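request received
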Amino acid sequence: MAVREAEPVGSLQEVKEAGLDREDLLGMYRAMLITRGIEERGHILYKQGKIPGSFYTGRGNEAAAVGVGSAMGPNDVGTPLHRDMGVHITRGVDPWRIFAQYMGREGGPTRGRDGNVHMAMPELGLHPMVSHLPAMLPVATGMALAFKIRNEKRVALGWFGEGAAARGDAHEAMNMAGVRQLPIVFVCDNNQWAYSTPTYLSFPVEHIADRAAAYGFDGVVVDGTDVLAVYREAKRAIEKAREGGGPTLLECLTLRMEGHAVHDDAFYVPKEMFEQWAAQDPIERFRSWLRDHAELTDEEDDEIASSVKRTLNSALEQADESPLPDPAGLEAGVYAAPEDLDTPHHK
Amino acid sequence: MAVREAEPVGSLQEVKEAGLDREDLLGMYRAMLITRGIEERGHILYKQGKIPGSFYTGRGNEAAAVGVGSAMGPNDVGTPLHRDMGVHITRGVDPWRIFAQYMGREGGPTRGRDGNVHMAMPELGLHPMVSHLPAMLPVATGMALAFKIRNEKRVALGWFGEGAAARGDAHEAMNMAGVRQLPIVFVCDNNQWAYSTPTYLSFPVEHIADRAAAYGFDGVVVDGTDVLAVYREAKRAIEKAREGGGPTLLECLTLRMEGHAVHDDAFYVPKEMFEQWAAQDPIERFRSWLRDHAELTDEEDDEIASSVKRTLNSALEQADESPLPDPAGLEAGVYAAPEDLDTPHHK
Amino acid sequence: MPELTYIQAISDGLRQEMRRDQRVFLMGEDVGVYGGAFKVSLGFQEEFGPWRVIDTPLSETAIVGGATGAALMGMRPVAEMQFADFISCAWDHLVTVAAKQFFRGRTPVPIVVRLPSGGGFSGGPFHSQNPESSFAHIPGLKIVCPATPHDAKGLLASAIEDPNPVLYFEHKHLYRRIKGEVPEERYTVPFGQANVHREGEDAVVVTWGAMVHTATDAADELAKEGTEVEVLDLRTLIPWDREKVLESVRRTSKVLVLHEDTRTGGFGGEIAATIAEEAFEDLDAPVMRVAAPDTPVPFSPPLEKAFIPQAEDVLQALEELVAY
Amino acid sequence: MPELTYIQAISDGLRQEMRRDQRVFLMGEDVGVYGGAFKVSLGFQEEFGPWRVIDTPLSETAIVGGATGAALMGMRPVAEMQFADFISCAWDHLVTVAAKQFFRGRTPVPIVVRLPSGGGFSGGPFHSQNPESSFAHIPGLKIVCPATPHDAKGLLASAIEDPNPVLYFEHKHLYRRIKGEVPEERYTVPFGQANVHREGEDAVVVTWGAMVHTATDAADELAKEGTEVEVLDLRTLIPWDREKVLESVRRTSKVLVLHEDTRTGGFGGEIAATIAEEAFEDLDAPVMRVAAPDTPVPFSPPLEKAFIPQAEDVLQALEELVAY
Ligand SMILES: Cc1ncc(C[n+]2csc(CCOP(=O)(O)OP(=O)(O)O)c2C)c(N)n1
Ligand SMILES: Cc1ncc(C[n+]2csc(CCOP(=O)(O)OP(=O)(O)O)c2C)c(N)n1
Ligand SMILES: [Mg+2]
Ligand SMILES: [Mg+2]
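response:
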């Protein structure tokens, strides 16, 4: 097989070599907890009728998102998707903004113009997804192109699902990135389902990463429930790109642990599949690892849990205080004015 | 390397095993001569101002087009492109129709609605290309899907250039064909240039056929100047598809021996490249082979040449008698009426 | 006659066509096991098998391009977009291939693309659009926008029968909100025949899709003041029923054109321009247009409400029009 | 002031912008070594190097999507489509991403897509189209259609400066046919300001692009009979100069809207509808439209001539209008 299947991560030593100290590890753990916490609370809010529209979660993808997000450099950029809440959290988005986004409030990053995870904060290097998948891949390629033109040591990350990999956008983006050896990492959230569609109806090869060979770069498959392995592989790919080594296709294998969105009970996913993957829940898995390798104690764990809880409680409150947007400003927001270009991230 | 590079064809014996008798061989030879003859005359007509718009030729691609066209079964279908005049000829299009098409006459297959090689005769199993490359690949995939749904032993052929292979349409078509194991052959006319763009700026791998692996089917590279090798490989791929073996990506390697179109002198193509490929001109090559292996004599060759000449002369005359289309009928031709569906090829 | 919701009418109509004609098949994302995002094809795969109810990869180009190819081979494909918004990914195939194929090559392309469209439930900028106007400008395509369960079924049958590429816009906000009598047996509603959804002589609202109901609500409200407004449902945009529109305009002398899509460059402009050109002498007031403002469809409820024309907006416009 | 052809003005303007602003770069198929299909960027790669004049693969989606990404990173990309027709392959990226990005995320997308458009030389259905109307319906995009060398240069500078996605339609049939004085120094022509290309008081033709010249030919012809028709060149469709159009209509009371694109759903409908709505009382005749018939652009010369509005067609319509 052309792609490399990455080994799981073992010891603390190994992790230290990868540049992570204990604080980093706990930060990642906390980010995963916040990620899941936001989505769990969002789910409740949705059921309470407080979130309009639809609601998506990335349950099962917390390690993949946080692992990749943590490997990004401060000036790197990316276009995370609807399963990648962990990327926003890792990059520092204040959770209240996300609740405000969910609820269509003025305080959400899109100020009620768009909903759910269709948001991002450019000042943190993230740019909002569109529904049309995977349209952000050519955009990410263009970001990488800008870095290449300007000779900057920055890397762009473009996320896509294994289902959306069937679309032409994925191909054009990867081909152009391959031709120009751009500093980009294509991150595939392979959660094995595209809505109700199983992988064998989405693509006829074993791994999405097998496609990398068609674009002249490396493909790597990593267990997306192992946050440290994801981190290590993402870091490698990002640094390779930064040093002029060209793109990598990094496939994070997970299972989408819930329906496509709240309305979907995922009846089409075999029960055993859920059971099997539940046994390797990314958060549980990382928690045991921290206990075994990084001396995470019960007290410390409890403390982190309650701090997360506090954060989310006050985030919710703050979001709820944010007003609904005023329709009077709707039409004024379609076209940018010259001064809108004067932002630090848009240099 | 994942793809198979096909051997050249040697002996008459080998060819006979492939199912071609001497008459077939001379038919292919004749088709190649007519193909080139039409385009050479077209070129002159263009310079005389008798052909409006632009003018494209497939010089250098005669063997690839005729080889594949000859390998198609009577009920197979295809969507040839602007370098594939040989396919139309092989399938039996009367040359006068092509001149009429070039000249925008009522007698052309598009009745002056479209120009140059944007034409095909559906009753011969061919469907007209659009400019937008390679938009006909998803269409060909849909044709193969129809055969699969109806359980017919028919095969669809979709042509594309190595440059257009960068577009999303190629990807979506191949991926879907791979997922559904459709009876289709994707034929890449790799003539090494996409307008002025060399292959290394179009794709970052050695062969376009390398991509087949990303779609779970076979890739084959064949010397597109060797009509018999092309025929053999096309036949294999077509029969494999017919028998349920799924798609093949067949890459025919040639050089585009002229500019992209008449207005282009191809200054960007290295002179040595032209010289090298001129030495393996597909028609000269086949002529020598026929002399060496199939006892083609000078007399016979001359006779074929003059018969081709006669055919083209009378084709030109007939085309010139065809009237220009009447604008009065323009608006009526946009929407089909129910009775337009009653055609044998559109069953 | 049974009462069906709009979505049941589509589902029943499609099933009936598939039973009737072996050549009809459905392809799209999640249309098989899942029954489609809106469950229009629930149970279809059991009945018709996996090769007539085809779950495709996430590939709008291959779906629409593939439907074109299958149609050229004599099939009658019905392609489902999961949301109408995603048809943007197949724009090229409709505009470049399907729309122009018959004109160029004389081979008809009898495909139907089903497009769950429209807003009203906080779907946001990518799950609420009404992209019919963009396509209505492309010669070679037909555009269908049913407003009632009866028309939904009858127009679907016509769409499948039609030898041309047909975009069938099914309004999501009508799916389960609108009920009506729908004959069990097969019938067709012909293209290009507008329907007087509500009678009236004082003015006419020309509209289609979900706005037919918005207009009717406004007209009913206005009736309380003794003014009777006709609501003319175009049913199909291409072809559109110029004659009936002009007849209504001549009769009422006052016309409001209403659509849910954004205003500038919307199909309402075509209708208003045609009226202004053909019925200039018969008008007692300028042709008014009510449509969404020129913005993407916003997500947050107060914004969306301000975006989608509401009965109050129509009422206000009608009052102005009638008073002119 | 030097006399330049329309295409020289574009070429010079683009070079000037690239010299002036490091962030401006050009990407597209064959724009480098070849200088672009129409040679607009001939010699640019020598001057600016291969990373500011980028030969891309045949990938309209990656070109436009890539331009969007580069713009988000602070660049000022100019993307060339080889022919405007091929923008259909990037429709989704313009409509879904570029047009809506600022509204949603407050990050401007300052890209320019150059689109060699229009017919008149037997380019056939895929090399002759004027797709501006489809895009003019999409909120978030700006649409520019210069008619003269002067405007071609000035509008290009404005387009590159503009913080929004701009579609710059350069009419191929004007490339080498139209000459005019063009200042050597940099200047901008602001968006949304129509230009009186020809003065007249008896009627006004509202138009843009190549049709400005067709209208002028017709008006000059009509002037021989003593009737003076104004030709108002919109220059940009989004935004379009409603005020100046309405002012002209009020002054002349008779208006013809003219475009090269097909009629139904074309932007002419928007203009005519607006006039009918806003200047109803000032009109002495119905708003007329002259446009191409609703067909793909045909290849064969007699068909193409029948398709593209000719000066005679405009003349005939004007005579009718003036006589009304
Ligand atoms: C172009 C396009 N077509 C259809 C959809 C509707 N849709 C939303 S998510 C989804 C499945 C995506 O699957 P995958 O790419 O595997 O991502 P996942 O949701 O599993 O993370 C579909 C079909 C879409 N968003 N975009
Ligand atoms: C979508 C699209 N973009 C641009 C063009 C303009 N164009 C016509 S042919 C061509 C080069 C095609 O190269 P290739 O696919 O290798 O085919 P070849 O002409 O070499 O046979 C280009 C860019 C086109 N036809 N379609
Ligand atoms: Mg998935
Ligand atoms: Mg080529």
